[in-house]
Task: structure prediction
Amino acid sequence: MKIVVCVKQVPDTKGGVKFNPDGTLDRAAMMTIMNPDDKAGLEAALRLKDQYGAEVTVITMGLPKAEDVLREAMAMGADKGILVTDRVLGGADTWATSQTLAGAIRNLEYDLIITGRQAIDGDTAQVGPQISEHLGIPVISYAQKIEVEGDSVIVERQYDDRYHVLKAKMPCLVTALAELNEPRYMTPGGIFDACDAEITVWGRANLVDVEDSNLGLKGSPTQIAKASDKVRKGAGEKVTLDPAEAVDYIVGKLKDKHVI
Amino acid sequence: MNLEEYKGVYVFAQQVDNVINSIAFELIGKGKDLAEALGTTVTAVLVGSDVKGLADELAAYGADKVIVVDDPECKEYRTEPYAHALASVIEKYKPEIFLVGATAIGRDLGPRVSARIHTGLTADCTQLEIGDFPINPIPGKEQKHNQLLMTRPAFGGNTIATIACPDFRPQMATVRPGVMQKRAKVEGAKANIEEFNPGFTPDNKYVEILKVVKAVSDTVDIMDAKILVSGGRGVGSAENFKLLDDLAEVLGATVSCSRAVVDAGWKSKELQVGQTGKTVRPNVYFAIGISGAIQHLAGMEESDIIIAINKDETAPIFDVADYGIVGDLNKILPALTEKLKAEMANKQ
Result:
């Protein structure tokens, strides 16, 4: 079985967020981690590898330094790492990103593609389903359990008040929830090997069946009109009261606001 | 693409088990605002099996027209038949705006549809308005009018971005549930129904539903709660959450928690608010014994009213609280619960 896992290097938002003059994110200026949902997706792939034997290829699109997440993934047990990086790919929205990743994945053989449900920077949850659409394969989003049975995947697909157990013929794309599992740690041997491992680097020329007009900032249907750091609303009233007074105070506010 | 051909505001009227989700009415409500600004109408798109009878309810909340796609293939939500239904509606009717709820269904359906028809999709919007793009004129660049400006938080709420989709139609957005206002319900309204069936031919993209398991656990989704009673490390123990449970029960509220509580094993991860948990926006958020780390604030500061109780007067939670009470939660909560019980009893 061949599994492709899409991962994203995301800013660790604790350090604050910076923008370029054109309103796009200045990713170079921020500390980074492997996106948590993607890491759960990688762990799911590695468990399938442990169980059934599989070749796990990790792919990421980003700046050259996104290579770090590939090495981390390989230190956890992934077999191959592919970095898709090119200036013309910068500033991509989810349409252009999914076009890029689909164009790269078309070079690969795969039974299963796993992406995280969403990344903690954009929170869109769009790229996984959009890749599946471009590749013409089924998608199962919000996976809380993934199993393989013959040539099919059996997935528990989470909804707000229920889950569906779904069966899809492979090839199929599944988007993973962080709750899916507890990702393993990198092993010392894995770290050692990953440092020396060869990372495949692809650029625009390696993308298959993708028009220039669908790539990067220029190929993005959505455009940023305005972006800013959030202005926090600021403190309201702060009172120090004994319990009985505090109760009257809270009940009074709930009444004023027609909560009760 | 001739943008002028695309007219009208369309919303996806999500139903599950033939019950329309509240988000459908919220989208119609917001859709009406947008339609008024554009001088057009709102059409709800209802997809399912044996759902025609639900159309009047959509009219009651303001839908000018309801397109019904009724087919046994659409009985339970599955990505492919639903994506085919919406993409076919869009191809046939050419709406200029198409809104979908940012639910566990909409966030799967929206991207699949937008990718199929090649347009932009803005996720999880909290504000929608009609305006110019670019917002301010830029020399040498055409300023387009009557554009949908879609505002959304990103980076776990640390930033706010306003997005436009000037060159593709429809302009698509998923909209966060619970944010937009419904219009008042007009009893007895009759829908102007148009039936449309694009034909459904199962292919490799149709997945098979082996089982539907309702109510995954006894916990409710904290994102749906109107009132959250949220506890932090200051609550002290798993047992002491009883104080929060009691208060929540009186208010019809749901209990949630901070990360420290999950890490301590007092509550499950499903109930966690914050950057690594869920983003919530209830009408009222009680922050009880929560210090208010920035990662927690990112997940709850959009709440309409924040009431914080903490014994540490320097706790950062007081920086975002509308009403902050410096005091002992162990004394305040039981008394508050009793007082509210009495208030509720009087009202009945």
